[in-house]
Amino acid sequence: MNYFLYAMIYILVFLMGVTVFSYLNLVIERLPKKEKLTIRHSHCKQCDHEQTWKDVIPIFSRIRYQNRCRYCGSVLPKRPLIIELVGGAFAVFSVAMYGIHLSALLFFLVICDLMVITMIDADTQEIPPQLNVILLLLGIPAIWVLPGPTIIERVIGLFAISVPMFILMLFNGFGGGGVEVVFCGGDVKMMFAAGFLLGWKGVVAAFFVGIIVGGAYAIYLLASKKKGRKEHFAFGPFLAFGVLVALTQNLGDTMISMYIDYVKSMMTATY
């Protein structure tokens, strides 16, 4: 009986996550265009027919109409469906980590914000300032809801990475060997906000993960000749991934401890 109850809870959580991310699809599409973020007046991009509630039920409408517009028959893009499924998976992941608790809700809200940042930056190479403000505000309840850094560590985190990134931005990025990484103002503001959420140790870890993954992607683009040496790509998605990893794995303390142990071992070997 307990297994059945748990299964029902997780199915419900999954469907809730799918529903939330279905709305985030609308936000991802309309926020860069500064359109209204209301559910009404969704329309098919091919025939421009206004969709009713029957057409926008997450997942089920796709299955019922075989992933096609029921008015013109055109094939619908797959990305919104993938995002919805990812949302359901993240909702289940949040509850699996924290249980039915406010921590799970806050963690999921952070993921929502990071997802919108990731998709909009990937599409437009810009991060709307509202999303960074939301990330910063989510750091306030995190003080009590999510265990982790102290207030002082969070305040230091505001500047630990954002200030060096701003300086690098003034010098048009950094890089070598044909691979160049360039930050924009949205990236700097995101790491400023993430610094309060994660604390200085966590935001350093997030930045490190973002640089490693983003740098690897830059090398891939260069090697495959999909990007030229002076062409830029959106770096926000990789920083957002770093924030998620740091928040999930508590990498900050682990990395700092490893570094301190390494320094101690080097000093011991020297003397």
Short description:
The protein is mostly helical. The chain has ten helices and two strands; from the N terminus they run αααααααββααα. The longest helix has 39 residues, at 185-223.
Structural topology:
Layout: H1 2-30, H2 60-64, H3 79-98, H4 102-124, H5 129-145, H6 151-160, H7 162-170, E1 174-176, E2 179-181, H8 185-223, H9 236-249, H10 251-270
Antiparallel strand pairs: 1-2
Helix pairs in contact: 1-3, 1-4, 3-4, 4-5, 4-9, 5-8, 6-8, 7-8, 8-9, 8-10
- Label the structural class: mainly alpha
SS summary, helix count: 10
* Spatial strand sequence of the major β-sheet: 1-2
Question: What is the terminal-to-terminal distance?
Answer: 63 Å
Largest sheet report: 2 strands, antiparallel
Rg computed from alpha carbons, rounded to a whole number of angstroms: 21 Å
Features:
2% strand; 271 residues; mainly alpha
Provide a descriptive summary of the structure in words.
With 271 residues, this protein is mostly helical. The protein has two domains: 1-100, no CATH class; 127-271, no CATH class. 69% of the residues lie in helices and 2% in strands. It contains ten helices and two strands. The chain has a two-stranded antiparallel ribbon with strand order 1-2. Strand 1 (174-176) and strand 2 form a beta hairpin. It is globular. The model is unreliable at 174-180 (pLDDT under 50).
